[in-house]
Amino acid sequence: MRLISIFLVTFFALKNLNPMLKNLNPMLKNFNPMLKNFNPMEKAMRLILISLLTFFVLTFSVQAQQIDTSADRVNVDLQIPLKKIGTLKQRNSNEVSASRWSLGCEVLDRDYTDYHSYKEYLVPLGIKKLRLQAGWAKTEKKQGEYDWAWLDSIVNDAHARGLQPWLQTSYGNPIYSGGGGSNLGNKIPDSDEGLAAWDRWVEAMVSRYKDKVNEWETWNEPNGGNKPESVAYFNIRTAKSIRKIQPDANIAGLNLAGTDFNYADKFFKILADEKAFDLFNSFTYHPYSRNPDDTWDSTIALERTLRKYNATIPLRQGENGCPSSFNITHALQHHYWTELSQAKWFLRRNIGDLGHNHDTQVFAIIDMCYPPEVTTYGLLRSDRSKKVLGVKKAYYAVQNAVSMFDDRVTPILHAKIETTAQHRRAVTYAFRDKNTEARLIAIWFHLAIPSDTNELKPTKIVIEQGKLKNPVYVDLLTGGVYEIPKEQWNDDGNQQIFNDIPVYDSPVLIVDQSLVIMNPQ
């Protein structure tokens, strides 16, 4: 009984005093010399106790960083006046055949994060593609000598997990005269020596990883300090180097910071003059805005600019994110973001991209030690230790969205949907199942920056040719799935009318239940 009492006291002490855990290993070591003074029975009992203590130390250390799979994993003040029937089932990346999502795992080239600290969180999120920056300056520190060990460990691990690394060739390398800068906003290579070294770097990298990487991107956000004409020729040069080694490569060009369609026009004109569009599979842009719904006018203008020169190559949202706290120097700065507003921001950004038929990217997996501060754009909490300290609401929100918006569904552009909500304006996007034609409608209030309140407003939604046979309501923030009572909707054969649907400034879905994979309530 005394041992049991000690065990229970120790158990609850360990559970409630996590800061003490790091001190236990040295303490446990001190037990060994003491054992020789005990009789065999005492020694056995104490060895069992030490084993149990060690077990609990390890258990609680791991549990502090575990991914929550419970139905209430996102705890927010949200009272939906419908009957809950389940929670969206988390689907890992190996359970999703394909999707139009990618995940930001950048800045490893500058050691602002540590891939191996967060790699266990990648597959459970459900996104297959990882955007990585290859890091020429980190790999070639002495001219002519490549040290691939750091990048091998990342690419090989991601590939072994069934993930698809997407490698960006930038940045430059100052060990060469005119080799370009090694950070954001720096110059591209511009000397004969620097460009020749760049060609060797790109060809060596593609040769090394061509069996594990098929998707490439050129220089990141070159409009931070380079002329569009120079960037266009540099993109052409880089794409030719990639295709020389991997003819069937998938190559993304431009990589524009923002949606500067005037800059893009000059870039695209050079590609047209050089008949170089066939080198590229897509062009990426990074549309940062406090209200993620505010960028669509300029994005549409960017797309029209591209269509002046090419009718088919798509635009992709290649990097976009939102911090979960106030920051002073980086994108979306000087605003009091929280984990709740961040989660709403990601949902609105990513579903808006998909609704406009653009691939979407989540920036980023983890908080970054990006000088001069720790930037909190991550789905995972971290600090200067670069270790995972916890899972944010945004991780679960993105996980919920990924589980719904995979390759089963495709957007219906220009769908006819009307909404009414007092003093509010709602945005809607429609999707259909490729095989069954079952419908999915996303809706949220879009006029303001995502807030820290969850004010639901009853809203009437009228959908022409809705094709919703068994509609349910899904809140993507929490993953909750709810019944829509028959008295709240009707179908006259041409229109489906839904009354008093609770809507707020985070995306909710009216979706045919056949498309919902859930754990029942």
* Number of strand segments: 24
Q: Provide the CATH top-level class of the largest domain.
A: Alpha Beta
- The chain-level structural class is alpha/beta
Tally of domains: 3
Radius of gyration: 26 Å
Cα-to-Cα separation, first versus last residue: 41 Å
Task: Assign a percent range to the helix content.
Answer: 25-40%
Tell me which CATH architecture of the largest domain applies here: Alpha-Beta Barrel
Strand content: 15-25%
General shape: globular
Count of helix runs: 14
Biggest sheet layout: 8 strands, antiparallel
User: Average pLDDT across residues?
Assistant: 90
Structural topology:
Layout: H1 2-16, H2 24-29, H3 31-35, H4 40-63, E1 84-88, E2 101-104, H5 115-118, H6 122-125, E3 129-133, H7 136-139, H8 149-160, E4 164-168, H9 192-209, E5 215-217, H10 228-245, E6 250-257, H11 261-273, E7 282-286, H12 296-309, E8 315-317, H13 339-355, E9 360-362, E10 368-370, E11 373-375, E12 380-381, E13 390-391, H14 393-404, E14 409-412, E15 417-420, E16 426-433, E17 439-445, E18 457-464, E19 471-475, E20 480-483, E21 489-491, E22 495-503, E23 508-512, E24 518-520
Helix pairs in contact: 1-4, 9-10, 10-11, 11-12, 13-14
Concise summary:
With 521 residues, the protein is an alpha/beta fold. The protein is built from 14 helices and 24 strands.
Key structural traits:
521 residues, alpha/beta, 8-stranded antiparallel β-sheet, 8-stranded parallel β-sheet, 14 helices, 24 strands, 21% strand, globular
